[in-house]
Amino acid sequence: MKLFFFLLHLLFLIQLTNFAIAHDYQDALSKAILFFEGQRSGFLPQDQRVTWRATSGLSDGWVYNTDLTGGYYDAGDNVKFGFPMAFTTTMLAWSVIEFGNSMPANELRNSLVAIRWATDYLLKTVSQPNRIFVQVGDPNIDHNCWERPEDMDTTRTVYAVDAPNTASDVAGETAAALAASSMAFRSSDPGYSETLLRNAIKAFQFADSYRGAYSDNPNIKEGACPFYCDFDGYQDELLWGAAWLRRATQDDTYLNYIQSNGKTLGADDTFNEFGWDNKHAGINVLISKEVLEGNIYSLQSYKSSADNFMCSLVPESSSSHIEYTLGGLIYKPGGSNLQHATSIAFLQLVYANSLARTSQTVNCGNLYVSAQTLRKLAKQQVDYILGDNPNGLSYMVGYSNNYPQKIHHRGSSVPSIKDHPKFIACKEGSIYFNSLNPNPNVHVGAIVGGPGEDDVYVDDRADFRKSEPTTYINAPFVGALAYFVANPA
Hints:
Order of helices and strands: HHEHHEHEHHHHHHHEEHEEHHHHH
Shape: globular
CATH topology: Glycosyltransferase
Number of domains: 1
Strand content: under 5%
Largest sheet: 3 strands, antiparallel
Number of strands: 7
Number of helices: 18
Helix content: 40-55%
Strand order of the largest sheet: 1-2-3
CATH architecture: Alpha/alpha barrel
Structural class: mainly alpha
């Protein structure tokens, strides 16, 4: 069986050489960051570059007599889900922390702007004592409409969790997002950085004091599920939040927390997953930096899990068990597959950096895996997304001359309010959803869910699993692209 997968890997490497092209990683990076401006909620500034969008969601929070404007719509709808938005923010910040030096100065600025659009909102969600706001908008009502955000007249339900009710997952991820972002802003805006860190500590205290999943609350579950339920448990977000606070503060309190809570919080669980719900692989890579570069050997178990994860991605390794399509794309069952490709490629590059700094390799049993090998594997995923695939299709909208035209996205598919000022009601947008024409507004930088396990992609707006972009697909891709801007070969 291992021989079969090895030969399969060789076959898709041969295929890749047949349609490989030189990529403009800097152009792709610029577009990946620009995407976030098209996802903005709230009052849009004068320097807004995505001009088919306009101000929206200005009443968000009024039912609680609080300001919850701003933040991002997570995908092609008009709901602000706190769980994936916080994860998106963490990944954008990590991209800047790890690869900001590889970004052109203007794109580093644009990345910080993208992060701040999220953190300004996240600060609002933890602004009241013993309460965290976890979502704005009723997704069941919203998903029954097809209307641009500027017109939305659906219920803007606010979902809040008050202590002692539980929200360890969202609060823990919010703590991670604010802590990581505090590091991203440390040199350019130290005052804002301190504000972020102070609120990160507060968010983590809420997460740890009232342990449990936010979607276990009946009043939250009806809005969060089945869209962004906590499917994999809240424990990983506690470790994730503590790990980022350790890195941001260098406080031994968080180091001790990681050491003493690892077993009870499932540090050894599902090490081969990383995304908005399951943080285990990211936790292991993040904490491994303490072992590789800080010589804190009491955390060796996290490094061992990170090593195992990296080995699982190498087709030639005896412990390989990640599935690849024939065209070379990492594939995991479920929707929106490119979220796995972008997040895993990002982790490979981060881990490769730590290995390279310490001149180490990963022992995968039958072979040793170097930093360069991990970078090569990550580049295959990045290049596949940009067009080195059997379809010759860029899965990033606006990159190259061949990309998806009919993405599952309300604002992109309905005429812009700038071109069509007349109100388009909930069901009136259906004509645009059902249209066979390309979307009138090109959502530059949007990365769609991508092809299936057979590498097949049909440009179909109705197939949301394949054609819908999300913020958490793009966020780790920003860091991966930044690395290849500086290291294109």
